[in-house]
Amino acid sequence: MPETAFLKCIRTGCGATYGLTEPRYACDSCGALLDVAYDWERLIVPGSLQFFAERWATRNEPLDFSGVWRFRELMPFAPTDQMVTIGEGQTLLQQVDVKRLDLPLADGQLHLQYEGMNPSGSFKDNGMTAAFTMARMLGKRRVGCASTGNTSASLALYASLTRTNDGVPMQGIVFIGAGKIAYGKLSQALDYGALTLQIDGDFDACLARIREAADRLGLYLMNSVNPFRLEGQKAIMYRVLEGLGWDPPDWIICPGGNLGNSSAFGKAFMELHQLGLIPRIPRLAIINAAGANTLQSLVNDKGLGWNDGAWDDTLAAEFYLDMAKRNQRANTVATAIEIGRPVNLPKALRALDVMNGIVCDVTDDEILDEKARIGRCGYGCEPASGASLAGLRKLIDNGTIGKDERVVCILTGHQLKDPDVTVGYHMSAAQEKPAESGKAAEIAAQQRCWANAPVRVPDDLNAICTAIEGA
Ligand SMILES: *Cc1c(COP(=O)(O)O)cnc(C)c1O
Ligand SMILES: [Zn+2]
Questions:
Q1: 201 confidence band (pLDDT: 50, 70, 90)
Q2: Which end of the chain has the least Cβ crowding within 10 Å, N or C?
């Protein structure tokens, strides 16, 4: 009997399919990425999304409590007794006051999907729960990833809590590069007990190396080339829809690094639309950091597009060759999106096609200011997440997003992931200001105007009271 879930090459004109019994991260025949695909005709899919809201009533069942597996009929690749869950995805869509963010949107039109509330503090848990489920089905004991931080934190957490079907604890293995790494994230991998290998190379090098090690040692690769990660991450969009009473917003905005998240969002909407479960598909805006803007350059400058699944591989190849020639590396304060060669590029092109999407990039200064503004509203996030709001501001300013449109920004990671950057931002403003004058001072005052540096006061009650009353 044919299986109802299988792997399928995303390239039109290839479309090779593979069973789920062996790990596979690329098409054997053409090398392109693989989708987890379903024979929906032979599966039972609820007739309306409201079905999923009713699972709130049975949330004492761990699978109904999970913000991912609550939607299991929309990612039906595993039997329920194999599903790994630690209560991921308890994240809610929150409305935020546009006036406090000084954004010219209509009241009530901006929502933040705060994925920092996940068990390991980033959206990565949505995908990891699905990939660990597949690892268990494949009988894998060793799981590994190359990571700029959050993937390793999430992998280490799930590895520490998951056993194989034979009852053996899983071993988490993490490759970190010589580049920047946020200490909050590294501390998690170490604390959860993952074997952490520090490699003399950047992220792109680490990923290449771990793919080789995966082949040789049979460890299961948990980077977002693993298509099961993306299956779990589709649930972020299901929860966004749920938060809006199943009425799709006009825009979804998210930061773009390896482009797994944006790819997953595109697949979620493609399937929901195909299944007749939503009336329309929102638009997608993927935000790159200016110092790691491969997607932005390829799409906006080189005209790269999905082209009905026959995208032009040579454009990216030339771009990478040119980067290598100029010895140019990704460089941004937002380490979670500091990626030069995004592995999910073709899937992100498809997402842009399905969701009538756009790409733009924002500077590190814009990212940091926006991060601080969100913090003022009580939604702490890490730098990469600030890119969502920095992108929104830019897209409203240039007229792409209309003032009456309904927007959802994804806050991908928790504030405490990268305290050095946060404290650095608030402290540096205090040091920089006096040195500036004239136009430079004006610009400096606009930038970092959300900085909240500590005030130095002598150990003296009068001075302390003056400082408080004068603030
Ligand atoms: C991984 C990550 C990103 C980038 O997501 P991609 O799926 O790689 O594009 C953005 N923000 C945070 C906090 C992340 O952990
Ligand atoms: Zn193929």
A1: confident
A2: N
Determine whether the shortest distance from the Cβ of 223 to ligand 1 is under 6 A: no
Q: Is the CB of 145 under 6 A from ligand 1?
A: no
Q: Which of 343, 331, 323, 383 is nearest to 202 (CA)?
A: 331
From 155, 224, 258, 422, the mutation candidate for ligand 1 (largest count of ligand atoms within 8 A of CB) is 258
Which pLDDT score, from 0 to 100, does residue 203 have?
A: 78
Tens of pLDDT, residues 208-251: 899 999 999 999 999 999 999 999 999 999 999 999 999 999 99
Instruction: Please state whether beta strands 171-176 and 142-146 pair in parallel, antiparallel, or not at all (unpaired).
Output: parallel
Neighbour count for residue 61 (Cβ, 10 Å): 12
The encoded tokens of residue 431 equal: 């040091």
Task: Give the pair of three-digit tokens for residue 21.
Answer: 């019994």
- CATH number for the segment(s) 93-120+230-420: 3.40.50.1100
DSSP string of 161-206, one letter each residue: H-B-TTSPBPEEEEEE-SS---HHHHHHHHHTT-EEEE-SS-HHHH
State phi, psi for 117 to the nearest 5 degrees: -80, 5
Nearest-CA neighbor of 258 among 390, 179, 151? Answer: 151
Pocket probe mutation, ligand 1, options 91, 112, 145, 150, max atoms within 8 Å of Cβ? 150
**Least confidently predicted of 121-125, 282-286, 446-450:** 446-450
Residue 440 has a pLDDT of 59
If you average pLDDT over every residue of the chain, what do you get? 94
- Local structure of 245: helix, strand or coil: coil
pLDDT for 340 beyond 60 = yes
Cα–Cα distances (Å) from 445 to 178, 370, 422, 438, 467, in that order, read 34, 14, 18, 11, 21
Name the DSSP class of 246: T
Helix (H) or strand (E) holding 394: helix 383-397
415 lines ligand 1 (CB under 6 A): no
pTM: predicted TM-score of the whole model, two decimal places? 0.95
Pure H helices in 305-363: 313-325, 345-354
Chain segment 67-76, per-residue pLDDT in tens: 999 999 999 9
pLDDT at 433: 47
- Pick from 119, 221, 113: nearest CA to 160: 119
Q: Does the beta carbon of 150 sit less than 6 angstroms from any atom of ligand 1?
A: yes
Beta-carbon-side half-sphere exposure of residue 53 (alpha carbons within 13 Å) = 11
Q: Which helix (H) or strand (E) covers residue 254, if one does?
A: strand 251-255
Cβ neighbours, 10 Å, residue 21: 9
